[in-house]
Amino acid sequence: MYPRLNLLVVLIRNDFRLFLADRRAALLCFLVPIVLASVFTSIFERPGRPTQSARLDLLVVAEDTDPLCAGIIDDLIATDRADVRRATRAEAEAEIAKRGSGVAVVFPVGFSAACRARDSQKPGLELLFHPASPIESQWAEGLLTELVMKKLAKQWLEPMGLAGGALLERPFDMQHHSVPERIGHPFNSASHAFAGMTLQYLLFWGMESGLVFLRERQRGIWKRLRTSPVLLRDILLARSISTATIAVVQVLVTFSFGMLFFDVRITGSFAGFVLLVLAICLLSSATGLMVAAFGETEARARNISILVILAVSMIGGLWLPAFLLPRWIQDVSLLMPVSWAMRALDGVTWQGRGLASMLPAVAMVLVFVATFLVLAAGRFYWSESRRRRGIRIC
Amino acid sequence: MTTDCQLSVEAVSIRYGTVLAVRELSFVVRAGEMYALLGPNGSGKSSTLGAIAGNLLPAEGSIRVRGICRREKPAEYARLVGVVYQEPALYEELTARQNLELFGGLYGLRNPMLRRRIVDALNRVRLAERADERLAGFSGGMLRRINLACALLHTPAVLLLDEPTVALDPESRDALFATLARLRESGCAIVLTTHHLEEAEMWCDRVGILREGKLIAEGRPADLLRQTSDRSIIHGQLRETIPGDDADALRKSLGPTVELRISGRRLTLSAADGAGLGRALARLHERGVMLESFRTPPPRMECLFDGASDLSADNHRENSCTPA
Question: Does position A283 have pLDDT exceeding 60, yes or no?
Fold first, then answer.
């Protein structure tokens, strides 16, 4: 038992030495997820700051020079819900074509006159919008409807002495609450970004660890190791332990930075967080073994792994929260361990979930870890047996 | 088998898929003996070494080191064998000492003995002063010396070296063999592969000559030289190539004591004595085989597998069984 333990210690120590041999690369291993998470956080929301109202970027083309139309445009400019700029039709079309603005409203000649006539022929307004900005177009339509109706109602009701200010105002107040706020845990986009980027980088770290195997094979070190008294299972076990240990350090460093500078908090079960960190670090080393077992050459394995990791990160909700993705992608993502890990990380950080509610996700991650380990170890034993019998491995 | 037999290879055959690379190979190496496996490319030298090291599983036969078979006691067997492959299998990101600590540790060495052995091994390969430098800055020759030091740490009973002198300058080559000679004196059995015949003649106690996976000759270099000088050989250049079927017919007509090898327009003819060679030449002449030129080689060991060495590069590739 002890000699075997000693062999494992020798191999694990060597892996740590290899990791630290290039100090700058080792430092980058910790810096890159922090930088990525910080960038993602700053793109979205900074924690603790009140959300500013979004404003619609709107172009106005005033072909109608009537005072009624001018009044509506003045109201548009005065509203705090839009940034309004005047333009000619040609300018507006050019601006929308190059996506300088998503939408423009055109008040055509005769719009005011048609409004005053109040006959069955309704006055027309034109909305010009970029095909990629349908939401802005609907937003502009709603804003215009409110302002034009207010203006016209005032005009029509004033002669009847009914144009009281309160009558034309919105008859209710809208209160905004994000759902997590109601359960006492405000959404923290930094938490999501740090969890997502940590998870993504753990997959990359796993890949790097797997590539070390392929490099060892290429350099003949693997052949040399296989003539030593150490067993294949011990080589695999040692590499898994060292990979997972370095992954734990990466998680701790990244989350510590997030907690210190971005108000990332573990609002849920701390025990659940610890359990989850161990599970995702094992996932990292299992990923590494998969890369090593099924990768043929280092260059090929690296390119394919990067493609898979980026796709899985995107689909699994590591970049953007899963609820922003189409429903079918959310369903597909259930087949990926990172999706379960991400749900659990969101749960334990900003959603304030307890241990019990996280266990199913942690269990799913561990099921994937076990599957990867069995597949990778099986492939290793199979290819080793073939190699020893002199059969070329495809 | 004598009591000081360190390595015994008995009727070993090695296959790569359907290709038989080594056929029923048998030899023993005793303590304090340096044994060279000689042969042209693809003759099965490296495969034999790979099987002894444990990287290849023989299809038939058995390999024992001090009576221990790898299949029965893999860890014990591995501790008795040291391997130096052609390419330095080292972590160039690490220092020489760190590499030695890894390989020593894998063979169960612990401090303070490990530290002592590392110093000894580095002194042996004359690199003690560079112990704490990264291997990335080492020359090819220095890497090979560290590679050797790694294999010596656990004082193996049998040391295997695959083409140890490839790409070494003459000075490094002599230094390596001087190191190996000192090891031999300490009782280590050394098996090396090479196609530098002068090395084997100068340094090795015994040689085994492989051709197409078969051991065609074995013995002390001096005895083999005497045998080869007993045979009469000529190398010739044919006026025209001879089709394969005709060449087979020619071989049969010459009888069992005469050996005929034809590769393209090259011909090697060997007979037990000068008279036999003369008769064989006359027979070839009768059958219309005309020589454009010929030469007689000096009595050296090359003669034993000269025919195989003379094979064209294409034939080497066709016959090579070693996987990439």
Answer: yes
Rounded CA-CA distance A297/A300 in Å is 5
pLDDT classification of A392: cutoffs 50, 70, 90: low
Q: H-type helices in chain B, by residue range?
A: 45-53, 74-80, 96-106, 113-124, 140-152, 170-185, 197-203, 221-230, 244-254, 274-286, 302-309, 313-319
CA-nearest residue to A235 within chain B is B106
Q: Examine the pLDDT at A300 and tell me if it is beyond 80.
A: yes
Residues 6+ apart with CB under 8 A from B13: B20, B22, B23, B24, B25, B58, B59, B60, B61
Q: Which helix (H) or strand (E) holds A174?
A: none
**Do the Cβ atoms of A227 and B81 come within 8 Å?**
yes
Distance CA A338, CA A329 (A): 13
* Domains delineated in chain B: 32-44+69-215 (3.40.50.300), 226-319 (3.30.70.980)
Compare all CA atoms of chain A with the CA of B53 and give the residue at the minimum distance.
A227
What does the alpha-carbon distance between residue B292 and residue B7 come to, in Å, rounded to a whole number?
48
CB contact under 8 A, B55 and A227: yes
Q: What's the pLDDT band for A167 if we cut at 50, 70, 90?
A: low
Closest CA to A304 of A312, B212, A226: A312
User: Mean of the pLDDT values across residues A282-294?
Assistant: 95
Percentage of chain B modeled with pLDDT above 90: 41
Q: Do A229 and B98 touch (CB under 8 A)?
A: no
Q: Is the peptide bond before B112 cis (omega within 30 degrees of 0)?
A: yes
Do B74 and A226 make contact, defined as CB atoms within 8 angstroms? no
Contacts of B59 in chain A (CB under 8 A): 389
pLDDT value of residue A130: 85
Q: Which CATH architecture has domain A56-173?
A: 3-Layer(aba) Sandwich (3.40)
- State which residue of chain B sits closest to A221, comparing Cα positions: B89
Closest CB to A390 among B14, B85, B105:
B14
Q: Which residue has the higher pLDDT, A338 or B228?
A: A338
Which comes out higher in pLDDT, residue B272 or A210? A210
Cβ separation of B14 and A6 shorter than 8 Å? no
Q: What is the DSSP letter of A53?
A: P
- Out of A6, A11, A220, name the one closest to residue B85 (CB): A220
CA distance A254 to A209: 19
In this structure, what is the dihedral angle of CA atoms B228, B229, B233, B235, given to the nearest 10 degrees? 90
- C-alpha A22 chain-centroid distance: 30
B105 interfacial to chain A (CB closer than 8 Å): yes
Contact B53 A225 (CB under 8 A): no
Q: Sketch the domain layout of chain A as residue ranges.
A: 2-47+188-388, 56-173
A228: nearest CB among B15, B78, B93:
B78
- A6 vs B: CB within 8 A: yes
pLDDT of residue A271: 93
pLDDT-based confidence at residue A333 (cuts at 50, 70, 90): confident
**Residue of B93, B107, B143, B162 to mutate, testing the A interface (most A Cβ within 10 Å of its Cβ):** B93
Q: What is the pLDDT of residue A164?
A: 56
Q: Provide the token pair at A80.
A: 């705090």
Cross-chain residue pair B105–A6, CB shorter than 8 Å: yes
pTM, to two decimals? 0.71
Shortest CA distance from B323: residue in chain A = A392
The one-letter amino acid code at A232 reads L
